[in-house]
Amino acid sequence: MFHHTNSPQRRRKTSLRLTVLGAVVAAAAALTGCGSSGGSGSDNTVSFYSWDNEASMKPILDEFKKQNPSVDLKVSYGTPVQGYISTLQTRINSGTAADVFIITAENKTEIMEGGFAKDLSGEPWIGNIADAAKATYTKDGKVYGAATSSWGGGILYNKDLLAKAGFTNPPETWDDFLALCKKLKDAGITPFYEPADTIPVSLAALVGLQNQASGGTMDADIWAGKTSFAKTWTEPLKDWSELFKQDLVSPSVAGLTGDQITSEFQRGSVAMISTGSWALGSIQKAAPDMKLEFMPVPGDSGTYWAGAVSPGYAVNAKAKNPDAAEKLVEFLQSKTAVELYQKQNAAITTTKDFTPQLDPALSSMVPAVRDGNFYLPQVTWPTNSAALNSETVSLLQQLIQGQTTPEKVASALDAKLASLQGK
Amino acid sequence: MALSTTPELQPLQQQQSSIRTLPRKRPHRLSVTSWVFMAPIAVVFVALYVIPMSQSLYYSFTDFDGYVSNPEFVGFDNYTELFKDPSMLSALGYTIFYAVSTTILVTVTAIPLALTLNRKFFGRNLVRSAFFFPAVPSVAILGLVWGFILNPLGSGVLNSIIRSLTGLGPIPWLSDSTLAQLSTVAVTIWALTGWHAVLYLAYLQAIPADYYEVSKIDGATSWQSFRYITLPLLIPAMAVSQLLLMTNGLKVFDLPFTLTRGGPGFSTRTLTQSLIEDGIAQSRVGAASALAVLFLIVVGLVVLGQMALSNALQRKYS
């Protein structure tokens, strides 16, 4: 047996142990160094974490580089929604967020309340941003994001299939819409599909009518305890659930995604779907001969659109190069950049110095969207929108299956909000 | 009983008892070489497991939202909230249902499959590969493919076949809560049975053929051979297989999510999905950390229980 003494072997072992320990410490230090370093290098570097993909943004960013040759632009691309949000959250938390990033419905509360974005309300160009866009990213009079476009959501219909059921004019009330669905069903045509993997467009518009009737402060009032989901959502939910009660829409939609429903529409298997303006391009590409048009969602007190302001550009409050970051955001909202963006993405742009030329299928929607006359609950909810959105989607899937009632869904939303607010 | 007196089994038992009586070696200090080999994994373990787990434990007692760097201490609030949230309780129920049912059903299908694949027949290697194949592609791809097959509309692959054969209307495979739960379990069994059968096959091939020959001479039926030779000698394989199935089942996310995204309603929402959504998408890192800590404890207890059971079975049959 080997005895531990101050033998040469023992000393060699000790020395080796120290070497190993040193290597481990060095490796750990190197790892830590990797995490804490970063920075944007030279003074003329500005970093941008893009929401849109490279194909969408390249022409715009190339133009920026052309106009600002002294600025070195470093761009990284996120994967909306969850991937982008989580990466941004981690980078903000570790102090390594890009100089310019995206503020959106899912993170606006945390970004604005946490003071992670710079106030843009004093910028000379802020007047070019649409009022609805400014309002979406404003808190306490400070504007934290520059959004240059919006999207609208309504009922997209196949004109030929509706003509077979004697369709002449878009329905003006929800009952008219149900009657149109029945007429289509009687004619052997599947009337309407609506994906249930998100809050349905038609329900959002019906709730939007309630919000409009209460002067646009419905959600603020719910959060302040002046009203409740039970008082404001129950009627729209009752109307919406008639689609399933009267067997006009298959309860199978509870397990379908927007993509699945869109592909059914492209095949001509269903006459109407609810979707957003962003889906039009891909549907036209897949079904070039189909005659399409959007109609607003009809409710008991008029028609309305679902929709929201698109994500906005925000300047990191701790930007390493704030001047160049502001320059980039100023460029992104300029006529040149917005025109390029519109050409690339067929977006309904809303900046005041540029009027987009859009597809005729969107003609009924564009004025309302550019004026900000639309509603989407998860964007308007003041706090906890992601948590409430997820809860609402699950509850609506239960409602579709007949496992719950409109009243119980509304009450469950009140209970969830109370729980999230720690009441 | 004939089998218990089989002379060939005797040396094995003697061998095992002699192993048990060997004097225990004194624990000795780890050599430098051991440290060299262990250091990288130790660094990774500390950096990627110990530190994040300690952070999770700390966050579980705070209102951390993922952004603010100095969260407030809220005591056990996050833990008490968990038990009030119906979606969380539903996720707990489904996850346990999924883990237990897939563990049992994969085991009872993989063992007979392994016995079949262990026999000699034409094209055996091809059949073995075919059964192993579902374990090769990414689970996310399997989810997307099965989502296409189980599409609840009439245009779905399975529904089209059923309609052409029986004339029956579309079956809401992924749109009905109960059917969605059963569908996720069925797809998991399809995906995992082959892999676990190969595991059992490896153990089956290690059983000496002499045992079966002797049992045949002693007049044992096929069932007796299986019950008194195959099954006891497969206990170690079952321990490994079931441990993997149970731990993977408890932390499952990918397959149910790609098939149903947790729906309809809360029916196929898993605990891991709750963790990811609460912690990242909903900026409720404190609440998600509390769930993670609780989940870790529950998984630890389940695994310890399962190991105790496996050891007890092993002792009984060895």
Descriptive tags:
heterodimer, A: alpha+beta, six-stranded mixed β-sheet, two-stranded parallel sheet, 14 strands, globular, disordered N terminus, B: mainly alpha, 13 helices
Report the end-to-end length of chain B measured between terminal Cα atoms: 16 Å
Could you tell me the strand content of chain B as a percent range? under 5%
Overall number of strands of chain B = 0
Number of helices of chain A: 18
What about the largest sheet of chain A?
A: 6 strands, mixed
Low-confidence stretches of chain A: 1-41
The first-to-last residue Cα distance of chain A is 69 Å
Oligomer type: heterodimer
Largest sheet of chain B: none
Helical residue percent of chain A? 40-55%
Strand content of chain A: 5-15%
What does this entry look like structurally?
- The complex is a heterodimer of chains A (423) and B (318).
- Chain A is an alpha+beta fold and 423 residues long.
- Helices cover 48% and strands 13% of the residues of chain A.
- In chain A, strands 6, 7, 8, 9, 12 and 14 form a six-stranded mixed β-sheet that branches. Chain A has a two-stranded parallel sheet with strand order 1-2. Chain A has a two-stranded antiparallel ribbon with strand order 3-13.
- The longest helix of chain A has 29 residues, at 8-36.
- Residues 1-41 of chain A have low confidence and may be disordered.
- Chain B is globular and about 75 Å long.
- The two termini of chain B are 16 Å apart.
- Residues 1-22 of chain B have low confidence and may be disordered.
- Chain B has helices spanning 9-20, 32-59, 77-82, 86-117, 124-132, 139-149, 157-166, 177-204, 209-217, 222-250, 254-260, 271-281, 285-317.
- In chain B, helix 2 (32-59) crosses helix 13 (285-317).
- Classes of the chains: A alpha+beta (423), B mainly alpha (318).
